[in-house]
Every structure is written in C-alpha cells, then in structure tokens.
Amino acid sequence: MEELGEELFGTKFLDSWHAHYAKLEAYLQQNSFNKLLETGDAGDGLLKWIEIQGRLKNKLPLALRNKLTELNVDFYLQADFWGQRYGQLVLFYQQHGHAHLPAADEKYEALNAWLFRQLQGKKYLSESQFSRLDALAVDWDIITSRDQRWEQMYGRLKEFKETFDHCQVPQNWEPDKSLANWVRVQRRLHATAKLNPKRANRLHALNFIWHVQTIYDAQWQHYFGVLQAFYQAHGHCRVPGKQKQLTSWIENQRTAKRTNTMLPARNKQLTEIGFNWSSKGIKINNWEKSYKLLIAYKRANGHCFVPVKYKENKSLGYWVASQRRMEAQGQLTEVKKKKLSQLGFVWNNHTQEQLQSIYDSQWTLNFEQLKIYQQEYGNCQVSLKINPKLQRWTKWQRMLFCEGRLSAERLARLNEIRFPWNIQEGYWMKMYEALTDFRSAFGHTRVPHKWVPNRQLVVWVYRQKLKRSELTAQKVELLNMIDFDWELQRRKVASWNNMYECLIKFKEAFGHTRVPVKGAEDQKLGKWVSRMRYEKEKLFPERKALLEKIEFDWGYQLV
Fold first, then answer.
1. Which positions ≥6 away from 195 have C-beta within 8 Å?
2. Quick one: how far is CA 178 from the chain centroid?
3. CB 444 within 8 A of CB 421
4. How far is 213 from 210, CA to CA, in rounded Å?
5. Which of 202, 218, 404, 502 has its CA 20 to 30 A from that of 470?
C-alpha cells in the first residue's frame, strides 16, 4: 500500500484534499456537520469531496485519516454513498414506473454503473440492501452486451478519476482488479489501432494515459524533484533512512547506474546536484559522525547510556540501540566494537534491564497523564491539538495492541479506564455516554429529530436503529441496558403525481392553489407547493405545464 500511495495520492490529489479539508474545517467552526449534509450550503464541491472520503475509507494515507479524526465527527458513517445512489434510483422509479436505466444516456451513467455493480455482486449485499432493490423490481438476471460492459467499466474509471483526480489505475489494484485489467486492455487495443475511435476520444477526454512509460517517467521526475528540493535545503543528497520511499528510489538509481541501464539524461541530472553514486562512503561517514556525538555525550554525562528516545537527539539514541543489536547479531565489525568498548560502551544484559526500567517509568508517566486528560475532557480520545505527545503515545498503544505486543498488565490497566482501541470505537463510546446523559435527564432515549443541543447524537441514534444488524453483541447489550428504543420511524416519500392530485382536490375545495405551509390540515402539501415555486426554473417542462393547466399560483412577481 505504501508503494501504491505515491501512485494514487499524488501532489495534485493532496493539494486538492488539503484545500477541501481547510474549507470543511472553517465551516465546522460556525456550523454543525449535519447542517452541511442536510442543506449543502458550504460551497461548490465540498459535499462531493465528503462523499469521496467516505468511499475511500481506509485507503487514505494514515496522515490524512488522522486529520479527518481531528474533526471529531462520525465521518465515514455520514458519507452514505450507497444510500444516495439508491435514492436516485427511487426517483427514477417514481418518474418512469420501472428501474431499467437507459444505457446510452450520460445523465444516468454513474447511476447505471452503480446499479450494475449491485446486480453483479448481489451475494455481497446485506439483506436490507437486497430487499430495497428487489422492491424496485430490478432485473437480477440482466445479461450485458460488450457495449454495455464497456460503458460500465468506463463509468468505474470516471468514478476512479473523481476520487483520485487521475486515471492511473495501479496494475495490481486489489480494490478493483477488473478495472485495472480493463485499463490495460484499452492501452493494448489503442497501441494496435483496434480501439473504436469514439471510445478512444471519450478516454482521451478523461486525460487517459495511453503508455505506461509515461507514468514511469512522471514518477521519476517526481522523485527527482523531491531530491532536488532536499539538495537545495541541505546542500547534499544524503537523505535520511526515515524517508523510505525516496531512499528506495535513490538505491534504484544506483542499481541502474551499476547495471548500465540508466538513461544518459537522467545520469546527467543526478550528477549535476552532487548525487552520491555509492552508499558505502555515506554509511562510513554517518557512523563516524554518530560516534563523535557519542563521545560528546559521554563528556557531558559521564556515561554512554543514551536513552532510545533521547529528547535532544533522537537519532543518537536509536543509533546506540542499533549498535547493541548489531553486536548481538554478530553484524558489527571488530574495529567498530573496539572503538565503542574504549568509551566504556555497555553491551551486557544489565543494560537491557536498565532500558526496560526506563521504558516502564515512561509508560506509567504517560498513563497517569492519560488519566488526567480523561478527568478533564471526559474521554481518552486525545486530541492532537491539545497534547500531541500524549496523542502519539495512545496511537502507539493501539498499534502494539493490534500486533499482540501489548503486555496483559498494561492492557488491563488501559481497559480499566475504558481506553478506545480504535478511533471509531472511541466515537461510538462518546456518543453512547451522551445518550446515557440524555436518558438521565429526560428518562428515555427518544432523542428528538430536531434536537439542537447535540445534532451529532440525533444522527448517531438513527444510525444505531438503521444498522442494528451490523452492531456487535456488546454494543446491542450496552444499548439495551439503558432501555434503548429500537423502533425506526421512516418518512414516507410521496410521489410527484400523488401530490399533484392532492393539489387538484385542494383547488376544487377552495378555488385556488395557495396552500398555506402552516396551519393547514395537510402541511406536507403546503411544503410541496412552496417547493414547486422555489424550483420553478428547474422543473421538467411537462410538470410545469400540468401546474399551469390548473392555473397554479407561482407567487408575487415584481413588475
């Protein structure tokens, strides 16, 4: 995934991502997230961007996922992409009386591609999703022609571009191998002049890359640009090992030079910025540099026992630990071992005991700080803005837990304070505690639909009812303990034709179409009439004509 990350999430994607993130962050300082989802009044492209984040989910780089977490909203659950597409299909069904989408109509291209995926992967649908589609009488046994199949794959490619802002589908992309294979086929057909010109033009309109070498060249130039920026900032090309992708690329250039497979132009570009073609000399110089730092440390402290997380120079602490590890594995040369021993470097097991003692003390100190944070803020979901050091420590505990490397004692101590072992669980518990407080105050869990004090809780409660079958047994039990009301009330969507018939009856009874929004027997009709006036310019001509036929009152107009 690390290799694919650079390929999928390029500079253009990241620039756009951070711009939209800043826009959303500014919006949330003044409004709630639910208001944005309900009204969509935050600006062009923001709701579409939110939908894409929900679609990407765990495919995003960790740094971006962490930034989304800082917004402290139930981000992924809000981006109900499936529900949005289903809603569009319902509208089509209400307007046409069936769910057979026209294959050649660009208006329904994205919806057609989505429906095709549901039909093809019906065995992966939940029982609820299958029932909702079946209620629209979709054709589960649809047989697609080659043209239809091409259109479906083209739609998936457009969706890919909407998400990543390019068409460079990785060759072995796990999320959609069939799309990766289809992209390869289009390139092969184009290279052999067998691709339909109309299809080629449509792909060209998406800035489709016809030659894989173009991608490789772009990647090379990207990494060269990063190295060039490093050179301009530091005056050398000795990139530290923590920049794994760049150092891996650098080693590939040395290999290409050694095997005579490097292009002369690239060789020239690298040489002009003082590129080191051999890493041997760099490693020797780095070792000597760290050795001198260790001598200075001993002069200042009287010993060579540098903590691994030495605040003043973390790299020195890691280097000292690596010398012990290499010596234990027989990988340290006798010359280096002798030079270290002359400084009084400690190699024995007693050192490990001292290290463990320091680690234990540091862990206990961070744990106590977490308890203080919990008392102050009411949860253990540490904010990066409030305490970045403690937030990184909690992140490390989760990683150790997932890898099975967290001791039983520490696991038990964290469980005692209800430490959330993943971010989504932390949000769930936060909302559960808010609901518990609501029940203590009002005696029930029926949070009003328009409850202003906590709009997030309103949406969360609705989600628990809607997705009860997907909740764990522990969560269901916790909700039952507070007498959670599982009854799910769904709003009935009345068709346009039904509302129009109601309007005709209203006119026959009162002689006009000015249905009041408030105080009327049928408030739904009043709201519908108000919406027709507001959407006058967007109405289908035939619907507008039907309203004109009964002398519909469009409201006052200035002359």
1. 186, 189
2. 22
3. no
4. 9
5. 404
Side-chain half-sphere CA neighbours of 176 within 13 A: 16
* 3-class DSSP assignment, residue 243: coil
Contacts of 406 (CB under 8 A, 6+ apart): 397, 400
Query: Which residues have a Cβ under 8 Å from the Cβ of 138 and sit 6 or more positions away?
Result: 99, 115, 118, 119
CB 274 within 8 A of CB 236: yes
pLDDT by 10s per residue, the chain, length 559: 344 455 567 666 777 788 888 888 888 777 777 776 666 554 556 777 777 776 666 677 777 877 877 776 665 544 466 777 888 899 988 988 888 887 667 778 778 778 877 887 777 788 888 888 888 888 777 656 677 778 878 888 888 888 777 887 877 777 778 888 888 889 888 888 888 999 999 988 888 888 777 767 777 888 888 888 888 887 778 777 778 788 888 888 888 888 888 888 888 888 888 887 766 555 556 788 888 988 988 888 777 878 777 777 878 888 888 888 888 878 888 888 888 888 888 776 555 566 566 678 889 999 999 999 988 888 887 888 899 899 889 888 887 877 778 888 998 898 888 887 766 666 787 788 889 889 888 888 988 877 888 888 888 898 898 888 888 776 788 788 888 988 876 555 568 888 899 999 999 988 999 888 775 567 788 888 888 988 888 888 888 899 999 999 887 543 3
d(CA 98, CA 153): 24
- The conformation of residue 32, written as its DSSP 8-state character, comes to -
Q: Taken in order 402, 404, 409, 412, is the CA torsion positive or negative?
A: positive
| Identity of the amino acid at 427 | Y
Euclidean distance between the first and the last CA atom of the chain, given in angstroms as a whole number: 63
What does each C-alpha distance from 371 to 70, 374, 388, 411, 431 come to in angstroms? 20, 5, 16, 15, 20
Residue 549: count other Cβ atoms within 10 Å of its Cβ.
Answer: 9
CA quadruple 328, 330, 333, 335: dihedral positive or negative?
positive
CB distance 517 to 526 below 8 Å: yes
Distances (CA, A) of 361 to 138, 364, 387, 400, 484: 63, 5, 19, 18, 43
Between the alpha carbon of residue 297 and those of residues 191, 290, 292, the distances in Å are 63, 10, 9
Please give the C-alpha separations between residue 17 and each of 61, 63, 201, in angstroms, as whole numbers: 12, 12, 29
d(CA 531, CA 509): 21
Please name which of 458, 477, 476, 480 lies closest in space to residue 467, comparing C-alpha atoms. Answer: 476
Two structure tokens written together for 422: 């993943």
pTM of the model: 0.35
